[in-house]
Amino acid sequence: MSTAPGKSKPQKITSLADLKRVKADIEAQAQRAAALAAQQAVEAKLRMAQSNLFQAAVGAVKPLPEKRRAQLAPAPPLPIPKQQQRDEAAALVESLSDEVDVSSLLDTDDHLSFRRPGVGPDVAQKLRKGKWSIQKQIDLHGLRSDEAREVLGQFIRDAHKQGMRCVRVVHGKGLGSPGKTPVLKEKVHRWLVQKSEVVAFVQAPPAQGGAGALVVLLQPLRLG
Fold first, then answer.
1. Of 86, 90, 109, 203, which sees the most CB atoms within 10 A?
2. Residue 138 pLDDT > 60, yes or no?
């Protein structure tokens, strides 16, 4: 019966001397195995040290570009909406005061009206007669003063940018206010006078709101 390759033939133990010899062989094999393991550990540490030294010497690396791959330029940044930014900045800067005294700016005709310096009195007459048809309107009923001021300012800006010439502003007659004083009506007068887009305004005819509304003429839109 043959033995497997790499394995020594079993030794027959017939005496104490044979037993000591087998013990010595086993200890020698254990010492050789320990020495081999220690040598392998030292070699592994050496390889690791050499690898770290190489990486430290080379530093960070980048993959070479593949010749068959197209090098695309980065996407250009989105265009900046400059006009929108200007409009928003103008809206923030704009501040319509409630303290402006407009008594000297209003014409003391039958219903009070306003027109910019240099604008003839016939403009107010044409507004009352419906020379310009009303293209858009806003109703400020139920809004607090601060809300009404902001909403009215935005309404006038938008209407002017859309090229509209004549709009109606409904402010109410103030019958529901304390003391039935038309507080919002007077404030709307002040706010409109401060709007550069406004050329003139008159009290609306009875069929269009009478004392509770204004017909407002806007500056023509300048193109370019």
1. 203
2. yes
Phi and psi torsions of 118, nearest 5°: 95, -10
The neighbour count for residue 215, using CB atoms within 10 Å, is: 24
Residue with tokens 């300048």: 222
Least confident of 38-52, 99-113, 194-208: 99-113
Kindly report the pTM of this predicted structure.
Answer: 0.55
Does pLDDT of 148 surpass 90?
yes
Q: Across residues 78-106, what is the average pLDDT?
A: 60
Long-range contacts of 217-224 (CB under 8 A, 24+ apart): 217/123, 217/127, 217/132, 217/165, 217/166, 218/156, 218/159, 218/160, 218/164, 218/165, 218/166, 218/167, 219/160, 220/163, 220/165, 221/160, 221/161, 221/162, 221/163
Burial status of residue 216 (CB atoms within 10 A of its CB: 0-12, 13-18, 19 or more): buried
Helix (H) or strand (E) holding 52: helix 16-58
Lookup: tokens for 68: 């068959």
Structure tokens at 80: 């900046």
As a whole number of angstroms, the distance between CA 9 and CA 7 comes to 7
The CA distance from 100 to 194, in Å, is: 9
User: Rounded to 10 degrees, what is the CA torsion of 154, 160, 161, 164?
Assistant: 130
Please give the Cα distance from 74 to 145 (Å, whole number). Answer: 50
- Of all helices (H) and strands (E), which one includes residue 157? helix 145-161
